[in-house]
């Protein structure tokens, strides 16, 4: 890419995020953000988050920059999430939540900035898009998937819940059952399903990335006009998305819609019973069932209640509550044990606070959700 900008990243690995500018409609510019940690599937570190936020603020003030492009380095992932191992290690070392709170606060601030950004944001979401990567993608105006895309929210496996604004954007889907299912099972959504249910806006071939950039670079726009910028982007996306060469990916999740609705009906106890008795046949649903049943029972309770609470809430209020909830999960939930088992020791044998969904104390759930004081639970536990 041309015109590489300097990157300010205190304590970060060199070039873990790279900023460029490309021409847009010849005489204007498109700011390019490349997450550049392919060895870790471009997971977001705090210095990366800080650097991206700072650069976006600068580009917001630059009238010659008319659009933003987000991408990940390497062929495997756009972004597999936030670097929660750093958060885990800070909790183990410091025994307080100061770094944890800073990480989530600044990650959510970046997501919110993108949601409200004054210029169109294009996300090239090829490969794995998970957790924090979904936060970036879903905050973008144009969410592009390819034949290699796999979108998921896997937080139940680390004792967390779908955050990064997911309490908001999952509730924007047409089907509540699908929102619950994605949040509880970490189901990996392919490109066809992602477009069908509203997680993605366009399906292109992976090889079309360079062609799309070229079309944006070579478009015509004599005067600065936000509506013309939008038209240029949408025309380029429309043209490429109509290609006869696009692989026909079979819809999987949408084809199972009646099953998903049946599984996700009722409260978390009903859902648990339905999933326990469910006998899936396809590999994706077998994996989804296993992820739910082996995930944090406490997280399962939180997920259902958090999604219900977030209906009709503003984006601002969702992020505010998610910050409090995420810190609470780190302080007195299953987060540390989940990260240890899955990402640190990798034994995949977490010792959750509760063995089963039916064992979880409702008072504990309400404390983590901020609805009840700790003393009440201590009294209830006797």
UniProtKB/TrEMBL annotation:
Residues 30-366 form the Enoyl-CoA hydratase/isomerase domain. One of its GO terms (cellular component) is cytosol. Keywords: Hydrolase, Lyase. One of its GO terms (molecular function) is lyase activity. Its EC number is 3.1.2.4. It is an enzyme of class 3 (hydrolase). One of its GO terms (biological process) is L-valine catabolic process. CDD domains: crotonase-like. InterPro entries: ClpP/crotonase-like_dom_sf, ECH_dom, HIBYL-CoA-H. The keyword Secreted does not apply. It catalyses: 3-hydroxy-2-methylpropanoyl-CoA + H2O = 3-hydroxy-2-methylpropanoate + CoA + H(+). NCBIfam families: PRK05617.1 (NF004127). PANTHER family: 3-HYDROXYISOBUTYRYL-COA HYDROLASE, MITOCHONDRIAL (PTHR43176:SF3), 3-HYDROXYISOBUTYRYL-COA HYDROLASE-RELATED (PTHR43176). This is 3-hydroxyisobutyryl-CoA hydrolase. The lineage of its organism: Bacteria, Pseudomonadati, Pseudomonadota, Gammaproteobacteria, Oceanospirillales.
């Amino acid at each position: 890419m041309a015109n590489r900008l300097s990157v300010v990243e205190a304590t970060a690995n060199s070039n873990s995020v790279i900023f460029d500018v490309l021409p847009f409609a010849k005489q204007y510019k498109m700011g390019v953000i490349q997450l550049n940690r392919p060895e870790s599937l471009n997971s977001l570190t705090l210095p990366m988050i800080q650097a991206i936020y700072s650069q976006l603020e600068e580009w917001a003030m630059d009238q010659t920059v008319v659009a933003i492009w987000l991408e990940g380095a390497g062929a495997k992932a756009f972004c597999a999430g936030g670097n929660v191992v750093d958060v885990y290690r800070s909790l183990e070392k410091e025994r307080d939540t100061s770094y944890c709170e800073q990480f989530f606060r600044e990650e959510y601030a970046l997501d919110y900035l993108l949601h409200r950004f004054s210029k169109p944001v294009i996300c090239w979401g090829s490969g794995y898009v998970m957790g924090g990567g979904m936060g970036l993608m879903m905050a973008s105006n144009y969410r592009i998937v390819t034949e290699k895309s796999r979108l998921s929210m896997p937080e139940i496996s680390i004792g967390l819940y779908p955050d990064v604004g997911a309490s908001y954007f999952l509730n924007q889907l047409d089907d509540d059952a699908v929102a619950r299912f994605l949040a509880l099972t970490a189901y990996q959504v392919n490109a066809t399903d992602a477009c069908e249910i509203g997680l993605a806006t366009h399906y292109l071939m992976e090889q079309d990335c360079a062609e799309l950039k070229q079309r944006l670079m070579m478009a015509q726009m004599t005067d600065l006009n936000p509506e013309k910028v939008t038209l240029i982007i949408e025309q380029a996306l429309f043209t490429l998305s109509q290609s006869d060469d696009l692989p026909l990916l079979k819809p999987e999740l949408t084809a199972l819609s009646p099953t998903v609705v049946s599984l996700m009906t009722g409260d978390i106890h009903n859902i648990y019973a339905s999933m326990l008795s469910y006998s899936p046949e396809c590999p994706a649903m077998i994996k989804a069932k296993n992820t739910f049943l082996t995930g944090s029972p406490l997280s399962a309770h939180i997920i259902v209640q958090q999604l219900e609470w977030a209906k009709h809430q503003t984006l601002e209020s969702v992020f505010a509550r998610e910050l409090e909830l995420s810190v609470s999960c780190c302080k007195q939930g299953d987060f540390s044990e989940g990260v240890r088992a899955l990402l640190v020791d990798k034994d995949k044998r977490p010792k959750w606070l509760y063995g089963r969904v039916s064992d979880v104390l409702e008072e504990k759930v309400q404390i983590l959700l901020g609805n009840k004081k700790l003393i009440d639970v201590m009294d209830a536990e006797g």
